[in-house]
Amino acid sequence: MKKIVLVDSTDGLDPAHDQPREDRRVSGAPRRQTWTLHEDGPMSAGIWACEVGRWRIAFPAGRQEYFHVLEGRVRLHGPDGAVDIGPGQGGVIPPGFEGEFEVLEPVRKHFVLVDLAA
After folding, report:
1. 57 has which bridge partners?
2. How is residue 23 annotated by DSSP?
3. Dihedral (CA of 36, 110, 33, 28) sign
4. Largest CA distance in the chain
5. What's the DSSP call for residue 15?
6. What residue numbers bound the domain in which 49 lies?
7. Overall pTM > 0.70
8. Strand pairing partners for 17?
9. CATH number assigned to the domain comprising residue 66
């Protein structure tokens, strides 16, 4: 029997640290922290935090993400314009999305990534 995983706390857990690749940076060199709290098959979930900055993103055809902002504010720039997402709001980055991810205020969010065969 599989148990339910609470994806709410990072207490006592060490995050993975990284930054956007230099060739994708538009502004800043923000430090990102990822706590992957669940991985099973094509899905992973956890908490992600990031400093202010902006970088280009390109999701593969088989990857999509749902996220819910806990604190801070982000802006997704896509071919149809920009969308701001703040505390208490969620967003979806669809498969094949190409654009820019901008952190306007230091952000912390829940994320769910799904990677399906393209």
Report:
1. 99
2. G
3. positive
4. 47
5. P
6. 16-115
7. yes
8. 33
9. 2.60.120.10
**Tokens 């920009």 identify what position?**
82
Residue indicated by tokens 């991985």:
39
Three-class secondary structure of residue 106 per DSSP: strand
**pLDDT by position in tens, the chain (length 118):** 677 877 777 888 899 999 999 999 999 999 999 999 999 999 999 999 999 999 999 999 999 999 999 999 999 999 999 999 999 999 999 999 999 999 999 999 999 999 987 5
Supply the Cα-derived Rg of the chain in whole angstroms: 14
What is the total residue count of the chain?
Answer: 118
Dump strand ranges (E) for 16-62. Answer: 16-18, 25-27, 32-40, 43-50, 53-58
Q: How far apart are the C-alpha atoms of 100 and 17, rounded to whole Å? A: 20
Place of tokens 């060199």: 29
Q: How many structural domains are present in the chain? A: 1
